[in-house]
Write a structure and sequence with these properties.
Layout: H1 3-44, E1 62-69, E2 75-77, E3 87-96, E4 102-111, E5 130-137, E6 154-155, H2 160-167, E7 171-181, H3 199-231
Helix pairs in contact: 1-3
């Protein structure tokens, strides 16, 4: 075998090994996400927390909270689709009963006016003490935006720390994704998507890497072994 053929063999083996290793790495990432999803499901199966028991480690737990809406601090997060329609996530702070803190509540989804995106639909926010339930999550999903964002009622994103400084509210490092409770007949949709850990993405990437590894091996075998034999003159 010539030096050139040895070089091609080494390159093919290296490329196939590297892409196969990347495929295994993606499967490892998927396995980690499976374990994380199992942990999230286990948290969600625990008894619901009440306001006094909330801590920064309460993510993914169910909760039943009592308090009063801080209606004047309601924020409408733009470009949040639900059921294939464009609209807003409505976020209102809830001042918790028996605590000095408040928590941001992702109350639901409202449609956007196609003719005037600044025209907001009516929103019924009950006064007085209310009780709501849902699951505890991190900050609302963040979308790409140019610049540092701005205040106002309609926003692209909501930074909890900046909003706490702006509103003067002591906010817990959690949000509640509301599923039931006060104002549940307010016309807001609550078809919340399940938390997406990107599991299928890792499986897709793994398939691509393994396919590329097989392609490298197949091309080497074809060009270095099968094709030369097919082109070799047949003996009479």
């Amino acid at each position: 075998m010539t030096a050139r053929r040895w070089g091609l063999l080494a390159a093919a083996l290296l490329g196939a090994a590297l892409t196969a290793r990347l495929g295994v790495w993606q499967l490892d990432r998927a396995a980690q996400k499976v374990e994380l999803q199992a942990a999230i499901d286990a948290q969600g199966a625990l008894p619901a927390l009440e306001g006094a028991a909330l801590t920064a480690t309460s993510l993914h737990r169910r909760a039943v909270l009592r308090g009063r809406w801080v209606a004047e601090r309601t924020v409408w997060l733009d470009n949040r689709p639900m059921d294939g329609r464009a609209g807003f996530y409505v976020v209102t702070p809830l001042r918790l009963a028996g605590r000095s803190e408040a928590i941001l509540v992702q109350r639901g989804w409202a449609p956007r006016d196609a003719a005037d995106r600044t025209r907001l639909p009516p929103l019924d926010t009950p006064g007085g003490d209310v009780e709501i339930s849902g699951r505890l999550a991190a900050a609302p999903s963040r979308l790409y935006e140019l610049g540092t964002g701005s205040g106002g009622t309609i926003r692209q994103n909501l930074d909890a720390a900046a909003f706490a400084a702006e509103s003067g509210l002591a906010l817990l490092p959690l949000t509640l994704v509301q599923t039931e409770g006060a104002g549940a007949d307010d016309g807001l949709l609550r078809h919340w998507p399940a938390p997406d850990l990107g599991l299928q993405k890792h499986y897709g990437y793994a398939f691509q890497w393994f396919a590329l590894s097989a392609l490298i091996v197949g091309l080497y075998v074809w060009f270095q072994h099968l094709r030369p034999r097919l082109r070799r003159p047949q003996q009479p």
